[in-house]
Amino acid sequence: MATTGNSLVSDLASRISSVPSNYVRPISDRPNLDEVSLDDSIPLIDLQGLTGPNRSEVVKRIGQACQDYGFFQVKNHGIPEEVIDKMLCVSREFFYLPESERLKNYSDDPMKTTRLSTSFNVRTEKVSNWRDYLRLHCYPLEDYMHEWPENPQSFKEDVADYCRNARGLALRLLEAISESLGLEREYIDKVLSEHGQHMAINYYPPCPQPKLTYGLPSHTDPNVITVLLQGDVPGLQVLKDGKWVAVNPVPYTFIVNIGDQIQVLSNDRYKSVLHRAIVNSSKERISIPTFYCPSPDAVIGPAPHLINDDNPALYRDFSYSEYYEKFWNRGLATETCLDMFKMKA
Fold this sequence. Notes:
Layout (H helix, E strand, L loop, with lengths): L8 H5 L23 E2 L5 E3 L8 H14 L2 E5 L5 H16 L2 H4 L11 E5 L13 E6 L3 H4 L10 H26 L6 H5 L4 E9 L11 E4 L5 E6 L5 E5 L2 E4 L7 E5 L1 H6 L9 E3 L7 E9 L5 E2 L17 E2 H11 L15
Parallel strand pairs: 1-10, 2-3
Antiparallel strand pairs: 3-11, 4-5, 5-6, 6-13, 7-12, 8-11, 8-13, 9-10, 9-12, 14-15
Helix pairs in contact: 2-6, 3-6
């Protein structure tokens, strides 16, 4: 059960008028919201063309976005609006449940495949983050669905439907990313071994002093790609050319970012980009990232086809379980742990 020090921020937020000291960032590590720009140039890619004669053009655009931004948005992605609406609705319903009901799912053990928690890693971090989250493993669905919350009543059905759709989208994107690197369409699919998929339903309650803390501080994602569904409240910011850029939600689109494993597979041709979540004083925010991953035993390294005398391998081979363990133990304070896997000069 949650201890007093690790109580859910959603229940704390309704009782306070200032941010408790364990959430306050050092002055050198605050959002500096006045310096954030709004950038409409993050590519919005129409995926309709992936199934027709214009596939090569869409693949090229995806590759360009991976190279220039590490982030892009997608429309005409094939996931029905009804599926998206239900997912956002049931997520909100879960976080509106009484605390005693939600806490049935609480654990700070990162090995648990279904768990409610708060911040990032309450066992290791010194400063807490202004978020609660429900983490769910969701592939293969039949292995995990029985662990999911029973309440709200439609939770398992609505979330399973969403997970199936999100997986289909992730697989199509991975094929396109493979092709954009000049690899065979199934290359990344095969490297991932049995595949893994999990998601976080992030809940960021209103914060009385949003300039002092983060929903999530600057980090890259350790997985292969992340497919993010945002509600209608902005909060995602991406580092572009050394400056923080706000990415506002566009209804019924998804934001896609490449993770550390794609950076390794592409031998740094595509970069995993730092991003963060900020909070605000007036509105709660929900975001739902689907993390598409290798299975723990998958061996990741630069694709042999991308290695030659002019482009030597920049990373050693490693298992995904080794990578994820180091990522989790280091926490978000150090932003990325790719450096630990670089080849020694």
